[in-house]
Fold this sequence. Notes:
Layout lengths: L11 E5 L16 E3 L2 H9 L13 E2 L2 H6 L23 E5 L1 H4 L3 E3 L9 H6 L5 E5 L5 E5 H12 L9 E5 L6 E4 L6
Antiparallel strand pairs: 1-3, 1-4, 2-6, 4-7, 5-6, 7-8, 8-9
Amino acid sequence: MTIIDADAQKVFVRFQIPRDKQHPEPARVANLHWTANKGEVTAAYRNFHNTGGNNIMLWMEFNIWALQYAGLFSHPNLLHVEPQLGLNQTEVVVSFILPSGTEKLEKIYPTIGHDWSEPDKAAAHYVFGLKGNLDIHDYAYSSNYTLKNAIQTYKNGNARTAPKLHLACAKPGGGNLFVDLKLMR
Length: 185
């Protein structure tokens, strides 16, 4: 299975920091039923540190903005994005929802408040909750370690020889999935 020719914006991504002493695999997102509403998405977006531990999971399209938000990519000619602390750690688990799944989902964006800062207002257009149902094979996974290595090779000007990002498919026996970093420009 490959998505080399797929539109990268049809892939959703979530970066998850494993809990203390947690093996990375349980940090993979595998929810099959998503029921976000605007209130929950807005509350999670505004509760940056998840005070109380009740935030729903928020997602982003797999693009340069998401990589900037995770602290994995930056460039002076791009929109300024304040990275979320900790998401650039090597052990962070990266969960992807593939095009087979994103077509089944509705994106639920936060309701932007009139009192929000301009950076918060701008970022709210890139982060969303989900509504809909998935199958387990709609997911793929990687680690920041793999993602960082692929990005570094690409940034060093080796686009022709940059390794494709290898993702582990959630579907048992599902084969390999490769993403061409050129899609994320």
